[in-house]
Amino acid sequence: MPQMNPEGLMTFLPMIGIVVLFILMMVIPQRKRKKQFQAMMDSLQPGKMIKTIGGIYAKIVAVKDDLITVELPPDKVRMVFAKGAVATVEDSDLPENEMVDKK
Question: Are 50 and 44 in contact (CB under 8 A)?
Fold first, then answer.
């Protein structure tokens, strides 16, 4: 049975360290993004303004399970989206009638 000498282990130690560091650099930010996304999903409630992944700005009027109903200004058109379609929750202090460009 061959014995492993310490020099062989010392040769692979830096490579093992680099692989471990690389894995940690990928896993930790992914967990952070997932936690932020989950917090955003939990904060969805009626009255908040959102932007969907398709670029639609709307106001939430109802939340049910993993579906949200939104209202689009100025015609008050209602649409239903999956919660996963929400890109951001907008922190706008503008009333919804000021969001629409005046022609």
Answer: yes
3-state secondary structure the chain: CCCCCHHHHHHHHHHHHHHHHHHHHHHHHHHHHHHHHHHHHHCCCCCCEEEECCCCEEEEEEEECCEEEEEECCCCEEEEEEHHHEEEEECCCCCHHHHCCCC
Which of the following CATH numbers is that of domain 45-92: 2.30.30, 1.20.120, 3.40.50, 2.60.200? 2.30.30
Q: Which residues contact 58 (CB under 8 A, 6 or more apart)?
A: 49, 50, 52, 70, 71, 72, 73, 79
| Residue 98 backbone dihedrals phi, psi, to 5 degrees | -85, -15
pTM to 2 decimals?
0.63
pLDDT tens string 4-61? 666 777 888 889 999 999 999 999 999 999 999 999 998 899 999 999 999 999 999 9
